[in-house]
Amino acid sequence: MGVIRVLPDDLVSKIAAGEVVERPSSVVKELVENAIDARSEDVLIEVRNGGKDFIQVTDDGEGMSGADAALALQRYATSKIRDIQDLSSILTFGFRGEALPSIASCSRFELATKPRDTLSGYLLRGEAGRVNEETETGMADGTRVTVRDLFFNLPARRKFLRSAETEFSHTFDEVLNFSLAFPAIRLRLIHNQKTVLSLDAAPDRESRLRALFGHNFPRTSVRIDYESSPVSVSGWLGHSESYTRQDTLFFVNDRRVRNRNLLHALYEAYRRYSKERDQLVIAFIDIVPTLVDVNIHPRKSEVRFANERSIHDILFRSVVEALERGSLGASLRPEPGTDLEEIRTLDNLPQLHNTYILVETRQGIVLVDQHAAHERVLIEHMEKQYLTMPAQRVLFPVTLELPPRLHDTLVRYRELIRQFGFGVEHFGGRTHILSSVPSLCVSHDPQAFLVEILEELSNLAKVHDPRRRLLEVIACKAAVKAGAVLTDGEKKKLIQDLYSCKEPDHCPHGRPTMLKLTLQELARRFGRS
């Protein structure tokens, strides 16, 4: 008897699913791609427990008929291509006909869909690739795919999934990629019933960048704008206060891809023409579809160009041109809002609504937001003292019994938190002893202050620069609040410190710290000019 045998269909499905569905973020990626291909304008993604227990993607796209929905769950059934020639000019995200059947084969799934020209929708429900229920259902136009208990029938695969926070961070990254590539689509991401990301449709990518990275990013970055037919490159090189140099985002025909050739071109450009090393790079490469092959791997995250060397040189030249034009670095910092010498007096400064400080200058007036201003002062002060942050011992050490989520966050960032002046020791289980806090936080409840910081860090999908993020959180929590009454001495010192900052015009989150009105503008407003 021979030893070679044909594998049963259910085993083939599980093997194939492993190539497409690596983790919960793979499911989200495939489902959102389907939504985009269906011309959706509004996509809602909801996950629980990092996506291990529950994933649901709802769109307002074209929907499918009942017959098409049933076919979509069969392997290699697709509406995107018809013959071998179509593979050489792929214009959609999906085309292999593997995503839905792969997802269905390793989960308890539900597919509900309704075309725009029908009165009711169609529902299929099943598990492990088998459909157990087919029925009509009432629903809005579009498609809703629900995936429960991912890898429930593949315990070895489920065992290798990471923590809920780690798995969700991968999902967040996938949604971030889509949000950059498709600003016209409204995107919402919910984790454990809490909205993590909510982006309204934007008119262009620059508006979407402001929503994601702060209003300053497009202004303090350099545009890539280069064309060499049949290829064009656009994008941004710059600094983001929450993103580090590891963030190099390449998109080819709006598809986020990884390609060593592109990375080499980017690194060569920076090595030769710039000393900057901590920049966020976002590059969109548009190329004739026949010149790029996306059919390399089932996850479609890798591409191969017909002429790799030519694409390398085009990206290299586009980045070099942007670097030379922009002179990235100190010249990108916002100009200081006002010189301290321009202020007429720092005595008896009016405080409006216990929130804003009114400053008279030689050129007009400046209204300062006391909370945003103090945030800027504190973060620049802490940046200078990083690794030597003064700490103050609490009178009586505090015992903290943390919930699992905050305990995991503290374990992950323990060393960094200690560097900022928090004396935290593990006492066993989820119990920790807090013995000291940063000196600038001594007026706060030590336990509440640390818990607030852990909450902020744990709610982030992925902390790309933990040091910077912790600076932001401490500065925000320690800064004087709106509504706080300040003495004349406190107002004077705050204005002096603010105008001594390198970037006095905005807080760490990108909000303005001050609004300026010149005498000319005041005269115009009062009809005197």
Automatic annotation (TrEMBL):
<keyword id="KW-0234">DNA repair</keyword>
<dbReference type="InterPro" id="IPR002099">
    <property type="entry name" value="MutL/Mlh/PMS"/>
</dbReference>
<dbReference type="InterPro" id="IPR037198">
    <property type="entry name" value="MutL_C_sf"/>
</dbReference>
<dbReference type="GO" id="GO:0006298">
    <property type="term" value="P:mismatch repair"/>
</dbReference>
<dbReference type="GO" id="GO:0032300">
    <property type="term" value="C:mismatch repair complex"/>
</dbReference>
<protein>
    <recommendedName>
        <fullName>DNA mismatch repair protein MutL</fullName>
    </recommendedName>
</protein>
<dbReference type="InterPro" id="IPR020667">
    <property type="entry name" value="DNA_mismatch_repair_MutL"/>
</dbReference>
<dbReference type="InterPro" id="IPR020568">
    <property type="entry name" value="Ribosomal_Su5_D2-typ_SF"/>
</dbReference>
<dbReference type="Pfam" id="PF13589">
    <property type="entry name" value="HATPase_c_3"/>
</dbReference>
<feature type="domain" description="DNA mismatch repair protein S5">
    <location>
        <begin position="209"/>
        <end position="324"/>
    </location>
</feature>
<dbReference type="InterPro" id="IPR036890">
    <property type="entry name" value="HATPase_C_sf"/>
</dbReference>
<keyword id="KW-0227">DNA damage</keyword>
<dbReference type="GO" id="GO:0005524">
    <property type="term" value="F:ATP binding"/>
</dbReference>
<dbReference type="InterPro" id="IPR013507">
    <property type="entry name" value="DNA_mismatch_S5_2-like"/>
</dbReference>
<dbReference type="GO" id="GO:0140664">
    <property type="term" value="F:ATP-dependent DNA damage sensor activity"/>
</dbReference>
<feature type="domain" description="MutL C-terminal dimerisation">
    <location>
        <begin position="348"/>
        <end position="486"/>
    </location>
</feature>
<dbReference type="Pfam" id="PF01119">
    <property type="entry name" value="DNA_mis_repair"/>
</dbReference>
<comment type="function">
    <text>This protein is involved in the repair of mismatches in DNA. It is required for dam-dependent methyl-directed DNA mismatch repair. May act as a 'molecular matchmaker', a protein that promotes the formation of a stable complex between two or more DNA-binding proteins in an ATP-dependent manner without itself being part of a final effector complex.</text>
</comment>
<dbReference type="InterPro" id="IPR042120">
    <property type="entry name" value="MutL_C_dimsub"/>
</dbReference>
<dbReference type="Pfam" id="PF08676">
    <property type="entry name" value="MutL_C"/>
</dbReference>
<dbReference type="InterPro" id="IPR042121">
    <property type="entry name" value="MutL_C_regsub"/>
</dbReference>
<dbReference type="GO" id="GO:0016887">
    <property type="term" value="F:ATP hydrolysis activity"/>
</dbReference>
<dbReference type="InterPro" id="IPR014721">
    <property type="entry name" value="Ribsml_uS5_D2-typ_fold_subgr"/>
</dbReference>
<dbReference type="InterPro" id="IPR038973">
    <property type="entry name" value="MutL/Mlh/Pms-like"/>
</dbReference>
<dbReference type="InterPro" id="IPR014762">
    <property type="entry name" value="DNA_mismatch_repair_CS"/>
</dbReference>
<comment type="similarity">
    <text>Belongs to the DNA mismatch repair MutL/HexB family.</text>
</comment>
<dbReference type="InterPro" id="IPR014790">
    <property type="entry name" value="MutL_C"/>
</dbReference>
<dbReference type="GO" id="GO:0030983">
    <property type="term" value="F:mismatched DNA binding"/>
</dbReference>
